[in-house]
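just leaving the lab so this will be short. what follows is a protein written twice so to speak, once as letters and once as structure tokens for the fold. can you read through it and tell me how you think this chain folds. anything you notice is useful, everything is just below:
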Amino acid sequence: MTQRPPTDSRPQIGQLISLRDAAALARVDIRTIRRWIDNGHLRAYRMGSRLVRVERHELLTIAKPIPAKHAQDNASRTYPDGAA
């Protein structure tokens, strides 16, 4: 009879990055990353007593596109110099 490896009940964690790298990726200050963590917008993982990491994918999911309010109006607008 073959033995199965023990199943890990911990949640799967993606690529973890430092708060400094997260701030650079999101183009915000590191204090903003810390604020997002404190407010519950971004989950953080403590690695040891001081090291904190965030999941790269979760950081990227925070960013959501903002739809243009008047995309149709802007598409048909003409400019005096002929530029589109």
